[in-house]
Amino acid sequence: MSNLKTIIQDLFANDNIEAFVAYKNGKPFIVRKSEDAMQVDEIDNQEFNLAAYLNKPEIKKLSKLGILANMSTMKALVQLANENQITSDKVKVISADASPKKFERFEEVTEYIKANNKETNADLSARVAEIKAMSREERRDFWNKEFSKCIKCYACRSACPMCYCTKCMVEANQPQFVPVASHAQGNFEWHFNRAMHLAGRCVGCNQCASVCPMDIPLNLLNQQINETIAAQFGETAGEELNSNYTLSFFKENDKENFIR
Amino acid sequence: MQQYKLSKEKLPEFLSGIIQSGKKLYAPVENNGSNYFAEVKEVGSIADVGKKTKLSAKSVFFPRCEELVKFEGNGENTKIIEPEAAKEGVLYGIKPCDASGMDYFKDFYTKENADKLIADRFEKTTIISCSCNEATDTCFCTSIGSNPGNTRGSDLNITDMGDSGFLVEVVTDRGASLLEAYKNIMSQASDVDKTKYLAEPQIRFDINKVKANIDKIYDADFWQAESDKCLSCASCAFSCPTCTCFDIQDEKNPHESRRLRLWDSCGFDLFTVHASGHNPREVQTERWRHRILHKFKYSVDTMGQLSCTGCGRCIDNCPAGMNIIDTMIKISEA
After folding, report:
1. Rounded to two decimals, what is the model's pTM?
2. I need a labelling partner for A188 at 20 to 30 A (CA). Which of A21, A57, A96, A194 fits?
3. Which of A21, A154, A162, A212 is most worth mutating to test chain B (most B CB atoms within 10 A of its CB)?
4. Is the model's pLDDT at A114 over the cut of 90?
């Protein structure tokens, strides 16, 4: 297989893509013209989850584009496909590894994930266990202290590949659900609601925590919910192509009957 | 400028003296490996002032969320509660870039139609800046015509001279009057040249070329490429010492209501949305251009000063790797 730059130029020439999302000097980079493909990084250890760019309105409106996908980006792409946000006709996926490969269909992406998924969130899981072992009061104090730092810059939302709402709940003001202010209540309600909105959808890329300028460990909330979903429903977001993912689907044999 | 020498051992005495005198002391404190400005009750909790704080010191004058007015009760029994006046305070450990930013900030909020609350805080806060012995990769104060020992916006400036202790420079009368009580722990100095102790951040772009080109680059081609990776959060604006924008929110329940002033950012798409739904800055390219032009053109046109201090925090904190220096290079080469 040829190198990444050739693949991108090929996508511009033969697949008529309008942009390709990759990295340059270790940072995200949007290739808009075929010749700019020469500027992209060819190393394969970048961590940024580029799927976040598919939610940027200026990119989302393009008719066809390509994206370089590391493991967490692939999981986000699969989940976005599950939620009918992208199709394989529109988004061309290239694996971010030593020998970049073009995937024709998302089924191939999930096969790749199954074969290569070595990422574990074991450290994070251990931290979640520590927090769960705290008393109610200690846990409340822990989160109050963390949330008190939040300046509501919304970097967590902007960099989250699964935050694609065109109108975020925090921006709804008729009625106002979540206080806009970055005071204790406003911050708590924002992060609490955001975590709940990601239940069964979060692909565990930890990008919310890594981009936070105030170093709030937001990924702990998502990890806790991911663990609960995995234990209760046996599903992990972004690993299977399945539009009936946990919270979008009601199973008739569900032990809860409130929804019937 | 009057100069004093202060030994390393005596600095804590100076700072604890300020706390004991009843003034509030604001200084960098550490939290999860990063430093932030906060009120300190004891000198021991002050973090290394050599390290750039994650956010600027503007929260001392412009809290991220503050009550402008509060109402309690109903009808004829409604009580109006005004915010409390500021307390005398000292802001210590601010870097010269940040202190220059506070000078701009003060001008912005106090020169015309002064904002009572912010003016009051500036009136009562003495600013002690600490010159930089080291610069980071993202520092570019020298590129905008400043330097790591600049005293603009400071009342006192302290320079670490290594084994020779600290050089304390008196910049304003307010600085002189704060120092009055501590002269016994300092010694007079004169003509000490602090420049050899200062960091030397590399000049990254030619500010004169930026100034020459700034009026003709509004429609330049580079804006899209420069803004393409921006994800439109506000970590740049909220860490910037000169970003002054705010949002007003009313919160109410049957017993009380309050009007809040909150940080806001021109990087948010909601920032310019009109009631009609029309957004004059619809795409991120226009929003990034606005941010840059405000700092390097609009504030020069309206206030005669740049509103970028070269602190580089917008680069440090950007999740997506946006870099104002790259854009400035593009403008200077346009």
Report:
1. 0.94
2. A57
3. A154
4. yes
pLDDT tens for residues B300-328? 999 999 999 999 999 999 999 999 999 99
The per-residue pLDDT for A120 is 78
**Which residues of chain B carry a pLDDT beneath 50?**
none
**Taking CB atoms and an 8 Å limit, are B231 and A56 in contact across chains?**
yes
> With helix as H, strand as E and coil as C, how does chain A read?
CCCHHHHHHHHHHHCCCCEEEEEECCEEEEECCHHHHHHCCCCCCCCCCHHHHHHCHHHHCCCCEEEEECHHHHHHHHHHHHCCCCCCCCEEEEECCCCCCEECCHHHHHHHHHHHCCCCCHHHHHHHHHHHCCCHHHHHHHHHHHHCCCCCCCHHHHCCCCCCCCCCHHHCECCECCCCCCCHHHHHHHHHHHHHHCCCCCCCCCHHHHHCCCCCCCHHHHHHHHHHHHHHHCCCCCCCCCCCCHHHCCCCCCCCCCCC
Whether residues A213 and B229 touch (CB distance < 8 A) is answered with no
Structure ipTM over 0.90, yes or no: yes
Euclidean distance between the first and the last CA atom of chain B, given in angstroms as a whole number: 40
Preceding amide of A217 cis, omega within 30: no
Average per-residue pLDDT in chain A?
93
pLDDT per position as a tens digit, A32-60: 999 999 999 998 888 999 999 999 999 99
CA angle A45, A49, A50 (to 5 degrees): 105
List the 130-189 stretch of A: residues with Cβ below 8 A of B.
149, 151-155, 157-159, 171, 179-183, 186
Q: Which of A52, A155, A182 sits opposite B65 (nearest CB)?
A: A182
Quote the minimal CA–CA distance from B238 to chain A in Å.
7
